[in-house]
Design a protein that fits this description.
There is one protein chain. Helix content is 42%, strand content 18%. It is of the alpha/beta class and 239 residues long. It has a single domain, classed as Rossmann fold (3-Layer(aba) Sandwich). The relative contact order is 0.15.
Length: 239
């Protein structure tokens, strides 16, 4: 009898590319990519976003929080795959500034996803505080097989959290996000760039905070690094 895969092997499988999925950029995602250039904005690159799509579909989350929605490049990839599924996930896109809320709302309307997708203009750290208070007060209902906890401020405990907020707030958002992950939940983010010679003190400090975080969680979480063409995608899951 074949032995069961280890947690490390299972996470490596989860983070891998899915060769059976379409590698072409969805039509709306391609349009948003052009819009990003015109607006002089940045987002995760095509290869990183496609890998997140592969992982999300394989992980099959029921509750998703995307942090740092921007104008919806990654969101368009996720909406593209989940909108055709019979059972839709609960999906929240968190964008701290409300200037992109209307764009994200129109995106969800294009996919007829407004019933199962919510746009929230709010600082993620503030949202996590509300979520942890709700989880604490509804713990018995969450663990009940006969009753249902309602009116949660976000889809929690979350099966998938994606953090894309830039280096300055990344570590804080990850640390907060880990507190609202489900037992088998997965947090995805991109590893910060290693400081180059002559980098600013802020950049050096931010990368040190990242190193400190990885050391801090090594006993409670399993961490996988997937090097891609221009980035390294990081997956974090509770042990």
């Amino acid at each position: 009898m074949d032995s069961l895969p280890s947690e490390r092997d299972a996470l490596a499988w989860l983070m891998a590319e899915d060769d059976n999925l379409n590698k072409d950029e969805p039509q709306l995602a391609a349009a948003i990519s052009e819009q990003l250039k015109h607006m002089e904005l940045s987002s995760m690159d095509y290869i990183t976003t496609r890998r997140i799509r592969d992982i999300a579909l394989r992980h099959n989350p029921k509750k998703i929080i995307e942090v740092g929605g921007g104008i919806g490049y990654l969101s368009s990839w996720l909406l593209d795959i989940f909108s055709v599924q019979k059972i839709k996930p609960e999906y929240m896109i968190v964008e701290s500034g409300n200037k992109f809320a209307a764009i994200l709302l129109r995106l969800t309307q294009r996919f007829n996803a407004t019933e199962w997708t919510k746009i929230l203009s709010m600082e993620f750290q503030e949202l996590v505080g509300e979520c942890n208070a709700w989880l604490l007060s509804n713990q018995a209902l969450i663990n009940s097989s006969t009753q249902t906890a309602v009116n949660s401020p976000a889809p929690v405990p979350s099966d998938l959290i994606i953090i894309d907020v830039g280096d300055a707030d990344q570590v804080e958002c990850i640390r907060d996000g880990l507190t609202i992950l489900s037992k088998n939940g997965l947090l995805l983010t991109v590893e910060p760039a290693v400081p180059f010679e002559g980098a600013s003190n802020d950049h050096i400090d931010q990368f040190q905070h990242w190193i400190d975080l990885i050391r801090e969680i090594k006993d409670t979480h399993r961490v996988a690094f997937s090097p891609l063409k221009t980035t390294t995608l990081v997956g974090i899951i509770p042990k």
